[in-house]
Amino acid sequence: MNGLYRLKVGGLHFCVSLSFFLAIFYVLKNFWYPYPYFENSGGWQGIKIVAGIDVVLGPLLTLVVSDSRKSIRELLMDVGVIAVFQCLALLWGIYTLNNQRPVAVVFWENSFLTVPAQALTEQDYELKSLLAFSDARPPLIYVDKSYKSADLKKMLEVIAKENIPPHYQTWLYRPLKEHFDEIKSQKLNIDQIIAKYPDVKNQLLPIMQKHNISDIHAMLYFLLQSKYSNSVLVFDQNAQYLGYVNPE
Question: Which class for 90: exposed (0-12), middle (13-18), buried (19 or more C-beta within 10 A)?
Fold first, then answer.
């Protein structure tokens, strides 16, 4: 009897927690970490932490403390304490995921790099300003590799004094579309990629069908380097972002 009671109370807590988890997962996957950034920039790692706290730990503790011999008041107090700690841990996880979400994808040197929100908010940069650079989400941005002595000096000073790498220095940001010709020399050879990772060709087919492209060589390919894994971003000749592939 007591075992069934525990399962009922723990199951109720699990259902409530699962509802919150699914809502968080939806926001992460569709807004904060859209593909390919969900896997590349820590969305998947973050959602596993959230799931462990919200879907597993909270209901499991409720299952342990539930007892049919307790009064309703005692049970509510026990579950209430668990819920408070669960919510605090969950809020911390959401806060961390929000800080680490990719808010810009910038081209520097020979590849695209993701920029987490925290890297810019710590500089008091208004994230909404990034929308002026690109219609893509997150915005695709070119980092001006200026060789003017004054600009180069400023860039190096910011690196040395504030420990901010060039792809985090927002004063260097420029619209990618206006500088796309400058990065074409850094494009990847798709034939070499397919030779090493044959499945990439299959991954390209939906992109080609969606944009009515018949030749894989009509598109341009660039490396995206992220914290956990890398991808290849696909563009047309006019700097329009078409999609991505994951060489594996």
Answer: buried
Question: Closest Cα partner for 136 from 111, 106, 169?
Answer: 106
Q: What confidence tens digit (pLDDT) does each residue in 11-23 have? A: 777 787 788 888 8
Unique residue bearing structure tokens 């959401």? 94
- 140-143 and 173-175 beta bridge pairing: antiparallel
The answer to whether 236 and 223 have CB atoms below 8 angstroms apart is no
In the structure encoding, which two tokens stand for residue 244, read together?
């991505």
From the number of C-beta atoms within 10 Å of its C-beta (0-12, 13-18, 19+), residue 104 rates as: buried
Helical axes 2-27 vs 43-51, angle rounded to 10°: 160
C-beta of residue 190 within 8 angstroms of C-beta of residue 216: yes
Contacts of 216 (CB under 8 A, 6+ apart): 190, 201, 204, 208
**pLDDT digits 0-9 by tens, 88-133:** 888 888 888 889 899 999 999 899 999 999 999 999 999 999 999 9
Separation CA 24–CA 39 (nearest Å): 16
> What does the pLDDT read at residue 36?
85
pTM of the shown model? 0.83
Q: What is the DSSP string of 118-172?
A: HHHHTTT--GGGGGGT-SSSSPEEEE-----HHHHHHHHHHHHHH---GGG-GGG
Which pairs from 217-220 meet CB under 8 Å and 24+ separation?
217/190, 219/190, 220/184, 220/187
C-alpha 244 chain-centroid distance:
14
